[in-house]
């Protein structure tokens, strides 16, 4: 299971299929008012008069962006719609949900291997349900546990949801809710001899004391290194009407994208792929033996034999 750092900027947060994604040109101002009122009801949000006007302006400019993008002349392969982030500016969204920019470029992977035409680990039962990272820059932790969940299922046939919170609290090489690197998270799990289950060490969306007792988007995306600020787990790939895509499991809840997932263009001519998806060499965990659950704490999953794959494991 390959993992990549993925860039999602420039309004990526409003990507989702929605009945409100209309095919005609754009909404009239009075329609946008009504949309904003029903958006507030749907998302249980109320504002005082002044803030409401500010939020309306932002909402309006997001709706304008959506309408422009969805214009039939663009013949895009995707449709944008409203979601729970439509009240935020791009800058606000980046600040809350994306990580500080990555600084490290890892060496390229092995191109001489022949791969099957398509893969979807979800249909193999190797992908847990979509999580919601909430207001915590923890995509790295979810991505790391997502990969370990996958390899664990492949080797042991058990699909167990693992604790991103343990990484946030206990992996001091990473920065909790302020971002982190996947290969460091793998090293943590390896050195720790495994990682706790999600049930036993549940998600809190903020950094807490380490509890050791517990055991096909293709536009508007920059692939320049300095813009890469998000990571997501690749759970498969495929092709639809000649359009090749990667399947990403995101951590912005199930109402985002395609039930929490997103397909992003594969085989882009850009040097680093669509949205910089190929900017970092993929990292993945390896597990060679089906180790049993820890006898001291049966909620803890032992991954003793795990090494991180790829060049990044050398560090
Ligand atoms: C934006 O809306 C969400 C609900 O979707 C709410 O939780 C959040 O507080 C709002 N943010 C602002 C700045 O209005
Ligand atoms: C690339 O993969 C091939 C086939 O599995 C293998 O023989 C080769 O050693 C690999 N090269 C590197 C640099 O890992």
TrEMBL record:
Name of the protein in question: Cysteine proteinase
SUPFAM superfamilies hit by this protein: Cysteine proteinases
Keywords, alphabetical: Disulfide bond, Signal
Organism field: Zostera marina (Eelgrass)
Database matches in PANTHER family: CYSTEINE PROTEASE FAMILY C1-RELATED
Superkingdom of the source species: Eukaryota
Cellular component annotations (GO), alphabetically ordered: extracellular space; lysosome
UniProt cross-references to Gene3D superfamilies, sorted A to Z: Cysteine proteinases
Cleaved signal peptide residues: 1-23
């Amino acid at each position: 299971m390959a993992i990549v750092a993925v860039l999602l900027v420039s309004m990526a947060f409003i990507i989702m299929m929605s009945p409100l994604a209309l095919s005609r040109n754009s909404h009239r101002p009075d329609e946008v008012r009504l949309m904003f009122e029903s958006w507030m009801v749907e998302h249980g949000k109320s504002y005082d008069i002044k803030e409401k006007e500010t939020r309306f302006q932002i909402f309006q400019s997001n709706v304008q962006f959506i309408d422009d993008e969805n214009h039939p002349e663009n013949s895009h392969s995707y449709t944008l719609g409203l979601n729970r982030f439509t009240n935020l500016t791009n800058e606000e969204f980046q600040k809350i949900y994306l990580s500080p920019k990555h600084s490290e470029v890892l060496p390229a992977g092995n191109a001489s291997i022949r791969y099957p035409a398509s893969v979807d680990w979800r249909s193999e039962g190797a992908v847990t349900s979509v999580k919601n990272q909430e207001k915590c820059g923890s995509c790295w932790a979810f991505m790391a546990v997502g990969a370990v969940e996958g390899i664990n299922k492949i080797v042991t046939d058990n699909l167990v949801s693992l604790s991103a919170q343990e990484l946030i609290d206990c992996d001091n090489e990473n920065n909790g809710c302020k971002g982190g690197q996947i290969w460091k998270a793998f090293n943590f799990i390896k050195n720790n001899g495994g990682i706790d289950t999600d049930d036993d060490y549940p998600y809190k969306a903020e950094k807490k004391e380490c509890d050791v007792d517990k055991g096909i988007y293709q536009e508007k995306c920059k692939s320049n290194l300095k813009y890469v600020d998000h990571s997501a787990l690749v759970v498969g790939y495929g092709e639809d009407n000649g359009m090749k895509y990667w399947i990403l499991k995101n951590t912005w809840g199930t109402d985002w994208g395609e039930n929490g997932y997103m397909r992003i263009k594969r085989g882009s001519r850009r040097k680093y792929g669509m949205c910089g998806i190929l900017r970092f060499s993929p990292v993945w965990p390896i597990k060679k033996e089906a180790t049993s659950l820890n006898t001291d704490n049966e909620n803890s999953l032992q991954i003793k034999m795990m090494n991180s794959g790829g060049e990044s494991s050398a560090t």
